[in-house]
Predict the structure.
Amino acid sequence: MPKTRDPDPLVDSEEKNSADAPNTQPLFGRFSRRSFLTQLGAASLAATTAPLAHAAAATQAPAETTEKTAVPGAVPVTLKINGQTHQIMLEPRVTLLDALRENLQMPGTKKGCDHGQCGACTVHLNGRRVNSCLSFAIMHQNDEITTIEGLAQHGELHPVQAAFIEHDGFQCGYCTSGQIMSGAALLKEPIGKEDVDVREAMSGNICRCGAYNNIVAAVQQVRQSA
Amino acid sequence: MQAFRYSQPKSIDNAVEANGRQNSKFIAGGTTLVDLMKLNVEKPTALVDVNGLPLDRIEPSSDGGLKIGALVRNSDLAWNSDVKQRYSVLSEALLAGASPQLRNMATTGGNLLQRTRCYYFRDTNYQCNKREPGSGCAAIDGFHRIHAVLGGSEHCIATHPSDMAVAMMALEATVQLRGAQGERSVALNDFYLVPGTTPEKENVLEPGELITYVTLPPLPQGTRSHYLKLRDRASYEFALASAAVVVQVSGGKIQHARVAMGGVGTKPWRSKEAEQALQGREANEHTFRAAAEAALKPAKPLRDNAFKVELAKRAIVRALQVTTQTA
């Protein structure tokens, strides 16, 4: 297979760029998958309500009105994510994963099983990898949180990110941000040198496509060049 | 998920006081509790976050053993140099459990209080005496391949899922508790309860009582230990059967032996029968097999889990072989 690598169409362009300068242009024009789907939803809503054209004004901005609605029981929560402090109102039931994705518009961290079994939601808390689905956001007001959006520094991919691209460490890409966050964290963990040690240390990240061999190769390349 | 009030007390006394109310729970790593709250199996109306309490140290204890704070994370405990050198069974058990992410979250106290992985307990559509006392047990007549062969009753056959606690059983750990009535310490073996007629009561904790420390006594000179875990996958899976052994041999004879099993009991299962079969005997396969037979003699297997009886025996024999091998 040719090894030419186009920008991965399966990763949201906003996710790829948000780690860098906020004004970077998305890779595919003005649309990301997420913004496309959001607008598609709004368009179909408008289409189905077309006979009620006089009500169209009310359907124009549903997203904004829901965001401004106060959630009962929400309390002020301060989270430090990728070096930036965010102050938001959160219900205590909101997991760190949902806070990132739904309240802070950082969808790079993925929701797979939502029960700590797949690792797609892996983020770093004070440099250590954890499952963000199994923790309430309100419990992490004193922690330094790092997500996939914050892994690249100064426009340079993290070595594990670059190695995943070089070694084709994914197919569908859904588990990839969790795999990369795990791979980046294990560089600092006291594990053995062999492939079998990496397999064990990456066992908390499930890949349904079965890209495991390439994931191990990517992680090992970074460990060996460190 | 049931809504809850959240508080983060800064002292142990405040935490104990805050958790005195009904339907209140402590939360530390959250790896079991949040999971079960999402399933509506756990429905606390108040959570007391204990992560701010000063219980995150591993220190030498006055008798030459080790004192482990209840908030020490599983990964920190597994990689602690004292634990690796002197209590390797504990380090091995911890590293055999869960995933690196979960071990970075899960705490020593929380691990002891893990709830069972019984499918019927985790699914509110089924009867479960542990979840809803008196509703019945769907596992006994249901699919019970992963269930217990030791310590079950007609009301519950759910296994205790912890690996760490099995190693701590073989190390004769003691649990320090703090409650409204003050402090007390309980041997880990007495901390856990078998289901009997009250499977919802899994341990001797009183309402509001907090685990503060786990202490490990010093081991006799020259003691070796090992944890062997057998499961459906090579990693990231609960035990079908596991063995924690702590053995000291001199002059070819076994002078000190502690044996505990995971994956087969309704609590982390220490076998004094196996220990008696080892004590003073020659360290050979014949002795190990006799100990394994003694350990599983009380087993009451059901249709789907009978394989665990032989699997657990082999786990004990193999763990004893590894531990007594001369280098």
